[in-house]
Amino acid sequence: AEAIVQQVYEHGLQFRTPEAITAAHTFRACHYLRPMAIWGIYGVLMGFGSGE
Question: Where are the domains of the chain?
Answer without folding.
Answer: 2-46
